[in-house]
Amino acid sequence: MIIVLRPDAAPEAAQQILERIEAAGLKPLHMPGSERVVLGALGDERVLAELQLESDPRVESVKPILAPYKLVSRELHPHDTIVRIGGMAIGGGRFEVIAGPCAVENREQLRNTAVAVKAAGASGLRAGAYKPRTSPYGFAGHGPAGLKLLREVGDETGLPVITEVMDTADLDIIVNHADALQIGARNMQNFALLRAVGKTRLPVVLKRGMSAKIEELLLAAEYLLAAGNEQVVVVERGIRTFETATRNTLDLNAIPYIKQKTHLPVLVDPSHGTGIRDFVAPMALAAAACGADGLLIEVHENPAVALSDGAQSLYPHQFEALMATLRPVVKAVGREL
Amino acid sequence: MIIVLRPDAAPEAAQQILERIEAAGLKPLHMPGSERVVLGALGDERVLAELQLESDPRVESVKPILAPYKLVSRELHPHDTIVRIGGMAIGGGRFEVIAGPCAVENREQLRNTAVAVKAAGASGLRAGAYKPRTSPYGFAGHGPAGLKLLREVGDETGLPVITEVMDTADLDIIVNHADALQIGARNMQNFALLRAVGKTRLPVVLKRGMSAKIEELLLAAEYLLAAGNEQVVVVERGIRTFETATRNTLDLNAIPYIKQKTHLPVLVDPSHGTGIRDFVAPMALAAAACGADGLLIEVHENPAVALSDGAQSLYPHQFEALMATLRPVVKAVGREL
Amino acid sequence: MIIVLRPDAAPEAAQQILERIEAAGLKPLHMPGSERVVLGALGDERVLAELQLESDPRVESVKPILAPYKLVSRELHPHDTIVRIGGMAIGGGRFEVIAGPCAVENREQLRNTAVAVKAAGASGLRAGAYKPRTSPYGFAGHGPAGLKLLREVGDETGLPVITEVMDTADLDIIVNHADALQIGARNMQNFALLRAVGKTRLPVVLKRGMSAKIEELLLAAEYLLAAGNEQVVVVERGIRTFETATRNTLDLNAIPYIKQKTHLPVLVDPSHGTGIRDFVAPMALAAAACGADGLLIEVHENPAVALSDGAQSLYPHQFEALMATLRPVVKAVGREL
Amino acid sequence: MIIVLRPDAAPEAAQQILERIEAAGLKPLHMPGSERVVLGALGDERVLAELQLESDPRVESVKPILAPYKLVSRELHPHDTIVRIGGMAIGGGRFEVIAGPCAVENREQLRNTAVAVKAAGASGLRAGAYKPRTSPYGFAGHGPAGLKLLREVGDETGLPVITEVMDTADLDIIVNHADALQIGARNMQNFALLRAVGKTRLPVVLKRGMSAKIEELLLAAEYLLAAGNEQVVVVERGIRTFETATRNTLDLNAIPYIKQKTHLPVLVDPSHGTGIRDFVAPMALAAAACGADGLLIEVHENPAVALSDGAQSLYPHQFEALMATLRPVVKAVGREL
Fold it and tell me: How many angstroms separate the CA of residue C286 from the nearest CA in chain D?
């Protein structure tokens, strides 16, 4: 960590701060320049963060040298983690596609959609029983009844099921019905939920918050690992920017960045990433090309009457066409679908 | 609501969609133009939202005419709501200042800070017992022990206490210790929490999410009112933008916008809005000048050793100076401090 | 165009505004609802824009139905435009790669880089003689001397040369030396420059501004076409967002969006789009996968000593490796490299 | 400047880079830590920037210690610069208000508006003869004829006139007609224009680009000072964010930040900063409260028929009311209007 003192800091400030650094068990460094006094503190930066040196009025800025996460870091754990959800192995050589409707609406809708996505080559089923909705008047999911349907359709089709948990109070029942837990974008920094999910032994699909820096996404994953759960997949699903032509801006730069910094696998959700049905397929191909470990895609047997996210849901025939165009791209980058 | 059809929509599309509109009990309108067919649907737009017309592949775009919120809207409820927290009346002619440390650290720190802010003119005390922290290694608050200290210091000083609730599981104990509940920026769209807090009878201080549009903030408030709690104060606390010179970008445009659209009172938090101690006072003055109903300010007896948010916390003497410069500005805009 | 009146607009407001619409030669529509009066104006929306109805204090909002651009629109011109620069045909079935250093530094640097990128399969050479630099103390290019070198190396290697024009005063000399003109991100809305470049007959490579909406990019292209130049290629090069892990956020959503809305070809610049050498290759592959017509890539014979943009410039061997991994991806999406 | 090496950098990398630093005349520092080797380079950071050390593949990151601007910095020039435009003294104890229409439309419109704003207390007149317009079909100003009218009305009313220059080719004629030159948001990084304007002796009003960091605004100002023109006023006029409720997000945090970092005066433009007539007055008051040196406000004799920016232009009676509410706020913060 590098600490820059204000130009008007009294001469004794450097000495006092160096003493605090040393008392914390770190190696202090003194670099007096002509325009600024710069101090260094070498060692575990998480200890340094606790010193809160940026709060000192004599300090102009504090610049970290190391990443603030540790367990998720590739520096400590160089080999790729493979997360297993049912028969899927996310993070190895395969490219896995998880598909399904935004929400469990009814048995027929869910079963028809599941059968269709499986036939087209999906290896996991996603659907929400608890739905976050911007307005209190929107359809918020069927809760426990939806979970039951999801489990049944998962068993019937042999697809592992992934579903969102929004509140610690619902965790027990969801754990009993799902093969993996999704933490949605709006809850990426719901720290109570992260801690509770970290104590379960189910794999976790953690979506990036819509205004979360990648570093914050990795720190959210660190919460899960720090609580004991190492089966974590992170998901790029689009960030909020000034551009309004699409619902979000899919940040594919994040894929190589995440693969470089962490051993955890990463999926891309081009449905939320674009918000527009026509753009899901090209962005799915782009995700495969730049190194993602798989996709999370919304498909509905009839999106025109979907209770939520219909505008970004594919028709089954569109999903089938996507899988067909996806295969050669996945192969071109040396993976298997 | 205005529905624009795609140029390639079949001629019968208009008729079919108009029938859906009519079946939903709304007044349909047909506007065939030379380049696009435009349809209208007049009536309660929340019903229309359920039709999910944007999911129809023959629809190019759907443009709402009315705001998606209702209970918080000034159209239905033209008079200002006044929220009472202890002796404070937020939203009337007074300008109220709530101050205190980021977190309850210990009895002495809390009491000294509380005594200082009260002496300087604050009328409410804020401090967290449960702290959201980006890293799992940060200080996360003392929980129940912190709540107890907060209640005691509140009683001792006569200041009503406002504290954050982060999880539905903690709600009962917090309700028993606090005079008002704060919902933090990261939980603005924690809908399970909004519903649970809406069922309490404590006033709520709802902070804008760091990437929330104002409309989404008002919809989050709508959750609270829809659940039965009308004592809601919204807070502008800075949004996330490309600018890195400050921690957030304080969006003061939001103040006159919110005052125009809703009857709920609005506070400004210049501490999080800037993240930098030196800029808290000017932004507090700006907030008073543009119509805010009060401030939420972080003050610590010794910010240089604060366990969190020290860099944006004022020293007691700085808070006192701020209150002195604030009074003439508040008076200049016709309010009382 | 849809015009929504304020709830407090006087009854005669609708009539007066409808008369203005009719007087402008458009078809007026009146839709009185219970909560708002909505007016419609069908016809050429560019005429309507001139009415500036949003300025009327009785108007709450104005919602356009049609895109504000016309000449660049695929609605009027459904077939893909192919832009020819030397032997390149951008926008047809081929995938074209333009590569070269950020700036012309000296003959040896330029020639070595050009020879290397040609050998690896690039079909165009890019390099700047006039460089926009954030600081007045940065290297701003060699101007006319740089142009001369660029022309010579282009002729020697047989690569067409693309170079940036920053000021109308430099246009004549650049036109005499280049095969295509680049308008940089910072000048995307330099309207005097757009008009002047539109009057030349050289192909134009127009980069998206770092905070430009796609619609604004297409309107900037519309300036060029309106001035008579139809040989326009647009470039996605990353937008400015809150994310600081990469220099910009490459917005690949823009590719299918642009291909849907306009007949003009589109390139991707993953060098500026990421700002980081290691991420150029994966983003180049992603661009190919999602439908871009080619790439603009920075390559330098020795980036470690480059005078500008070295951190995002590829070494020649990295560019060669990129071209090798690119070929199967380009082929997988049905194009030729 | 602090240079962090990659964990995999060879041991000799540090030595080689330290030699480059020393050869550039700077003081090198070596800080070998357990996880990273950190190097320091003390001295003039502008020299260091030329080393482009971030381009070296062995370097992980480069962290500047000092600001990249110098002439505009308050560190070198602690006293406030006062910029004089006609009778105005911007940057001293006074609070100056420049008002007028977006564009010169005709003599009557300009004269009526000028007379009205002068009567209400404005001390400068703004109006454009050359207008940047997003669409090529918008009104782009009357050019030289507009300049002539502006000069005449300025002389008639005794108000100094400020007008925008968009192209180096127009500079001579504008210099002959105006009292101060405005560089608009879209041209903040038109470096050819900055250099040319820097060579004139007219005061310059430099607007922040809509996605410019404050540091970039100050570097644009540095271009002007480096070219010899020290009469520079910078303007906060709103930045582009995800929020669509207002045209831009007025970043008032920038005001105390700019006042801390530079000796140049700063104005606020609440018209562009909000884009909505109703919010101009509250944001004008906020600007005065937080330390701005004055305002730039759009006023039109009849905004409902304005050829541009009508929706954000005040009616003369609204401007008069604003000035009345502004006076006590300006006085409350110890200034004079």
Answer: 23
B132 and B190 housed in the same domain = yes
Show pLDDT as tens, one digit a residue, over chain A (337 residues): 899 999 999 989 999 999 999 998 888 989 888 789 999 888 877 777 778 899 999 999 999 988 999 999 999 899 999 999 999 999 999 999 999 999 999 999 999 999 999 999 999 999 999 999 999 988 999 999 999 999 999 999 999 999 999 999 999 999 999 999 999 999 999 999 999 999 999 999 999 999 999 999 999 999 999 999 999 999 999 999 999 999 999 999 999 999 999 999 999 999 999 999 999 999 999 999 999 999 999 999 999 999 999 999 999 999 999 999 999 999 999 999 9
The residue out of C13, C30, C63 marking a domain boundary is C63
SS3 C133: coil
Q: Give the span between the Cα atoms of D95 and D92, in whole angstroms.
A: 8
Neighbours of chain D (3+ CB pairs under 8 A): A, B, C
Whether C6 is in a domain gets the answer: yes
SS (H, E, C) chain A: CEEEECCCCCHHHHHHHHHHHHHCCCEEEEEECCCCEEEEEECCHHHHHHHCHHHCCCEEEEECCCCCCCCCECCCCCCCCCEEECCEEECCCECEEEEECCECCCHHHHHHHHHHHHHHCCCEEECECCCCCCCCCCCCCCCHHHHHHHHHHHHHHCCCEEEECCCHHHHHHHHCCCCEEEECHHHCCCHHHHHHHHCCCCCEEEECCCCCCHHHHHHHHHHHHHCCCCCEEEEECCECCCCCCCCCECECCHHHHHHHHECCCEEECHHHHHCCHHHHHHHHHHHHHCCCCEEEEEECCCHHHCCCCHHHCECHHHHHHHHHHHHHHHHHCCCEC
Domain annotation covers residue A49: yes
Q: Please check whether residues C171 and C308 belong to one and the same domain.
A: yes
Whether the full predicted model's pTM is greater than 0.90, yes or no, is yes
Cβ(B266)–Cβ(C264) below 8 Å: no
> How far apart are the C-alpha atoms of A170 and A175, rounded to whole Å?
9
Longest Cα separation, chain A: 75
Chain A residue with CA closest to C215: the answer is A245
D22 and D124 together in one domain: no
Among A3, A30, A31, the strongest candidate for a mutation testing the D interface, having the largest count of D CBs within 10 A, is A31
Strand segments (E) across chain B: 2-5, 27-32, 37-42, 59-63, 83-85, 88-90, 96-100, 124-126, 161-164, 180-183, 204-207, 232-236, 266-268, 294-298
| Ordered DSSP codes for C219-278 | HHHHHHHHTT---EEEEE--B--S--SSSSB-BTTHHHHHHHHBSS-EEE-HHHHH--HH
Task: With beta carbons under 8 A apart, name residues in chain B contacting C18.
Answer: none
User: Percent helix, strand, coil in chain C (nearest 5)?
Assistant: 40, 20, 40
C77-91 burial: b if 16+ Cβ within 10 Å, else e: beebbbbebbebbbb
Number of domains in chain B: 2
Domain with D312, as residue range(s), is 83-332
> Best interface-test mutation with D: which of A2, A75, A260 has the largest number of D CBs within 10 A?
A2
Of A36, A42, A241, the CB nearest to D33: A42
Chain C residues with CB under 8 Å of D226 CB are 136-137
Distance, in Å, from the CA atom of B205 to the CA atom of B236, rounded to the nearest integer, reads 11
CA end-to-end span of chain D:
44
Q: Let me know if residue A78 belongs to a domain.
A: no
Best to test chain B binding among C31, C60, C240 (most B CBs inside 10 Å): C31
With beta carbons under 8 A apart, name residues in chain B contacting C241. 242
pLDDT at B1 over 90: no
